[in-house]
Each structure stands twice: as structure tokens, then as C-alpha cells.
Amino acid sequence: MNFKSKMQAEHLEISQSPRLIELMAFYMNFSESNHMICYELCIPFSCDLDVSDPEPVLRLVLPSYANLEYNLTCVVCLHTLFHPYALSCVHFFCKPCACSAGSVLIFEGVESASPKMKCPVCGEDGVFGNAVRMTELDLLLKRRFEKQWKERLVEERAKDAN
Ligand SMILES: [Zn+2]
Ligand SMILES: [Zn+2]
């Protein structure tokens, strides 16, 4: 692998990392504005989450680099992610949806799913054990979609009570 393709592979890996999304959400939770300028590097980048879009998409705009977009819709329930988890194949699900895909109960936790269980999107197995809980993203979604988020909380609590 030459240097350029190695760099591209690493960029791809970083751009697919749940930690990057957590960092974006962390930043957006911290500041009222969606824009940040790093003066030392002179690279202005911006994060954006448009609540009026039909599907919530988190965007990271890096000048002179491809813009990155992350759809925040859960493919299992087709709603905005709620208590999001990233499986190690970097597919995102609501915690309740990830638990049902992994055949575990909510209180047991996503990570306790059997290594044989497969991701509902890509079909890869062994992806539950190192699932990442995305707390900053959850907080961001709670703030930006407050009404929806609270309705979902009530729904999930009602399910737990049954
Ligand atoms: Zn879901
Ligand atoms: Zn997957």
C-alpha cells in the first residue's frame, strides 16, 4: 500500500469512527453556534444538525475535504436514534433496538449480546461486545428534538413496565 492510499484508508477509518461523531456532538452541546474556527490551523470547520430536515443528518464540513454526513435515523425502528449505540461495524441503533437485535434485555445491556448475534444492517457477527454508548450524541438529540425525545422516553418506560 502506498503512502497516499494508506492515508486515505486512515481518513476513512477516522471518518467512520463513533468517537468522531461523539466529538462533534460534544462540541455542539458545548456551544450555541454550530461553527468553530481553529485559529492555529486556520481551518474553519462546521457541524450542523438541521432539525427541519425530514431525516436528521449530522454534517461535518471540512474545507478542502469531502463533507461528512451521518444519518441519525435508526434503521430498525425508523425513528431518530434514542440512547444511541454504535456497534463495532459502526452501524448505529437505539439502545432498545440494539438490544432486541442482539436478543438481550435492556437491563442486560447491548454489550452482553452473544458474539453469534449479527448486525441487522451488515450481517457481521461479534459486533455487540465492543458497542460504544454515544452519550454526547444522545444529549444533542435530546436537546434538538426535545419533544420527540421525551415522547420516546415515555414509550420506552411503558414498554419496560409490561
Ligand atoms: Zn431504533
Ligand atoms: Zn453493521
Search tags:
four-stranded antiparallel β-sheet, binds zinc ion, alpha+beta
What does this structure look like?
With 162 residues, the protein is an alpha+beta fold. Helices cover 36% and strands 17% of the residues. The chain is built from five helices and seven strands; from the N terminus they run ααββββββαβαα. The protein has helices spanning 3-15, 18-30, 95-101, 135-144, 146-161; strands spanning 35-38, 43-49, 57-61, 68-71, 84-86, 92-94, 132-133. The strands form two sheets. A four-stranded antiparallel β-sheet has the order 1-2-3-4, with helices on one face. A three-stranded antiparallel β-sheet has the order 6-5-7. β1 (35-38) and β2 form a beta hairpin. α2 (18-30) crosses α4 and α4 packs across α5 (146-161). It is flat. It starts with a helix and ends with a helix. The mean pLDDT is 87. The protein binds zinc ion (2 copies).
